[in-house]
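Escalation from tier 1.

The customer reports that the assembly of two entities below gives different structure tokens on two consecutive runs. Tier 1 could not reproduce it. I'm attaching the input and our single run for tier 2 to review.
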Amino acid sequence: SAVISQKPSRDICQRGTSLTIQCQVDSQVTMMFWYRQQPGQSLTLIATANQGSEATYESGFVIDKFPISRPNLTFSTLTVSNMSPEDSSIYLCSVLPSGSGQYEQYFGPGTRLTVT
Amino acid sequence: QQQVKQSPQSLIVQKGGISIINCAYENTAFDYFPWYQQFPGKGPALLIAIRPDVSEKKEGRFTISFNKSAKQFSLHIMDSQPGDSATYFCAAWISGTASKLTFGTGTRLQVTL
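Tier 1 run:
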């Protein structure tokens, strides 16, 4: 398993500003993922962040809006840029531990973002 | 396109009863099927998972039944308890160059006394 922490846990931001969310894992992991979850809804994958390569974005998500960094095997950041109220959501970091073999993906506690 | 369909959307079960949540998938390339449990204000927690070459997996009160030919799988919660009240998500993993997890729409389970 893996223990994942996210900062901040929640934030209220003004439209037009940017917020960077940090994800820290207690062990080295091969794959890290960023998800968005609207209240009461399912999880939507934003992008996959692999160390040493550019993030891979899902349809509907672009790097200019959601730039991602992955400087090492235990840390990643997601920035939500030029925010609008539609970006209000829960953002979740998830990891696939190296050598897990069973594709057991673990999630952080999430960052609850409100854009006013 | 919703690749993993989940039902019901919500479920109310009496304490001690059996909770059953169903999922169906379309893509035969999926090769791992986990279930996640999520409490309000928390991230999803891996509950139990199964590979498509296995028809059933049981862990405590939780059982996954898998029907490869029908492309369906289900979660059974035996002896449901109020502490099981949460939202449950089925998911399907596809491995390869674009490895990722696709989630179902979720089922909100309420276990009453």
